[in-house]
Amino acid sequence: MTDWDLRKLRVLQALDECGTVTAAAERLRMSPSAVSQQLSALAKQLGAPMLEPYGRRVRLTSAARLVLGHAERVFGQLERAEAELAGYLHGEAGEVRVAAFATAIGGLLVPAVARLRTQAPGLSVRVVEAEAAEAYGLLAAGEADLALSLAVPSPAAGDPRFVRYPLLSDPLDVALPPGHPLAGTAGLRLADLAAEPWIYGAAGPWRDITLGACADAGFVPERAHTASDWSAILAMVAAGIGVALVPRLASAGRGGAAVIRPLPADLPARRVVAAVRTGIEQAPPLRRVLAALEAVADTVKPD
Fold first, then answer.
1. pTM of the entire structure?
2. CA angle (221, 222, 224) in 5-degree steps
3. Which residue from 62, 61, 66, 15 is spatially nearest to 37, judged by alpha carbons?
């Protein structure tokens, strides 16, 4: 297979566009003899003459025009590659695959993608919903470039394969049934709800966060009902069968009949982090997506 020399092809292109060896040499800042040598070397390499006499001048042979037709398409493709690479290096092109848990998708990732559509329309973000353990698995396998997860104790927490970036401290509010006797209490404390029936998941980060917040308040919550979907949890609270801690990202605009109350004296919160594989953290598209996530996180403030 022929090893194509792009420099020699550029010389051939210049001769075609300029018409004479002398003019081509001036454009390329070469001597006429150097231009002739390059074209002779190209002819020898390809096994076909590139030039033929034409009066006192030379012109391209049919073989040269065939080669040049393909070369020009190659040059065009390389120019597009250079433009795309420039966009990539500025974080304006490429693709970033993000694995994230459900409330982070709605509360952080979707607004970030909306920003990027304006700031970097050539940058593509692909989203897959995944809880923390699965998200880190996708990241480790190279099937995701960035993961959004909760900062809870896990085997991945100290894994040197990942670099983590704190994004958000998401306040935890309490969801109470309508008409609950403590719904209007000023200075409501988490400990005031120690005797209530609680709703939370059987396993996973949210169970750990709920148990941790209640432990900090001095009690172990009685789990009366098990659920992990926020719509289901809020519907159960609204029906009066229990209370629940709800992150503000999850409850915003979807409390329904449930009464959502902050806990300013306790200030329970869950921490949301972004993670990328060690070694690719400086990739411009990743930095651009992280910057958009950080900008959105800055707009989510505790009341």
1. 0.67
2. 130
3. 15
DSSP 20: S
Q: How many whole angstroms separate alpha carbon 69 and alpha carbon 81?
A: 19
Cα(223)–Cα(216) distance, integer angstroms: 17
User: CA torsion, points 101, 103, 108, 113, in degrees to nearest 10?
Assistant: 70
Q: Which two tokens stand for residue 254?
A: 């979807």
Q: Residue for token digits 């923390």?
A: 132
Please say whether the beta carbons of 273 and 89 come within 8 A.
no
Q: How far is CA 240 from CA 53, 175, 214, 249, 250, in A?
A: 96, 10, 20, 22, 19
Report helix, strand or coil for 195.
coil
281 close to 163: Cβ distance less than 8 angstroms: yes
Q: Read off the tokens for 248.
A: 């503000």
Q: What angle do CA 214, 217, 218 make, to 5 degrees?
A: 90
Please write the tens of the pLDDT for every residue from 209-259.
Answer: 899 999 999 999 999 999 988 889 999 999 999 999 999 888 776 657 899
Tokens 């008409």, residue located: 179
Would you state the structure tokens that stand for residue 34, as one six-digit string?
Answer: 């150097």
Question: Residue 129: helix, strand or coil by DSSP?
Answer: strand
Query: Nearest to residue 259, comparing CAs of 169, 171, 182, 189?
Result: 182
Compute the CA torsion angle 11, 2, 66, 73 (nearest 10 deg): -70
Taking only the tens place, the pLDDT of each residue in 193-202 is: 999 999 998 8
